[in-house]
Design brief:
Length: 196
C-alpha cells in the first residue's frame, strides 16, 4: 500500500506552488551539546533541493528557531542563531521566526500559505523528531499535502524517560515511520527532484 501511494505521488508531480520549508538549519546545531547526529549530508541535500526549487520558481520558506532559553546556542544574538551559509535566504524568501517546535504556532506561516494558495509543503531540516515532525504533523492536521524528505532531515541521540539510549539513526527512522502516510509522505530527495 505504501509503495503504491509513493509511486502515485511521483506520477502526480508537484504543483507549481508546492513550497519548500527549511526548518532550523542553524549554526547552533553544530555545537557539541546536542551529541551525535545522523545524516551528516542533510545540509547538502537541502541545498540541492533549494537550488532546484529556486530554478523552478516555486516558493521557499525558511524557519528559524529563536530560543528563549538563556544558554541556548539558538538564542537571538548568539552566533548559533544564524541560518547556515549553504541555505541562506535570498531575495524576498520569507524567514518565519518561531519560539516553539511548530512553525505554525505564534507565527503567520499558515496565513501566508493560505494567501499564496499553497496546499503542498515539502519539509526539510533539523531535528526530525522535534521541529520537523511537529510542523509536519500540524501541517497534515491543517489539511496541507505534506512531504518529509528523509535524507534532508537529521536527528540527534536521545535518552528516554527510563535512561535507555536511542541512537540518532533510530530516532530519525522512528520519527519518519511515525509520520509516514498519516501526516506526510516520506520521500528521498532524489525521488522528489524527479517530481519537479
Amino acid at each position: 500500500m505504501v509503495k503504491q501511494r509513493k509511486a502515485g505521488a511521483r506520477r502526480e508531480g508537484l504543483s507549481s506552488k508546492a513550497a519548500l520549508v527549511i526548518i532550523d538549519v542553524q549554526r547552533g546545531f553544530d555545537e557539541p551539546i546536542w551529541g551525535h547526529r545522523n545524516n551528516e549530508y542533510a545540509e547538502e541535500r537541502i541545498a540541492a533541493l533549494l537550488e532546484a526549487w529556486r530554478s523552478s520558481g516555486r516558493p521557499v520558506y525558511h524557519v528559524k528557531h529563536m530560543s528563549r532559553l538563556p544558554h541556548s546556542p539558538l538564542r537571538a544574538g548568539q552566533p548559533g542563531n544564524a541560518i547556515k551559509e549553504e541555505v541562506q535566504p535570498r531575495g524576498d524568501e520569507p524567514v518565519i521566526e518561531k519560539n516553539v517546535n511548530s512553525a505554525f504556532i505564534g507565527t503567520d506561516l499558515e496565513s501566508r500559505l493560505r494567501r499564496a494558495g499553497i496546499d503542498t509543503l515539502v519539509m526539510t531540516g533539523i531535528a526530525t523528531d522535534h521541529c520537523v515532525s511537529t510542523t509536519a504533523r500540524m501541517a497534515g492536521n491543517l489539511g496541507f499535502r505534506c512531504f518529509v524528505v528523509a535524507d534532508a532531515t537529521a536527528a540527534f541521540d536521545r535518552t528516554g524517560y527510563d535512561g535507555k539510549h536511542f541512537s540518532a539513526e533510530e530516532v530519525h527512522e522512528i520519527a519518519l515511520a511515525s509520520l509516514s502516510e498519516e501526516f506526510a509522505a516520506v520521500i528521498e530527495s532524489s525521488d522528489l527532484l524527479k517530481m519537479l
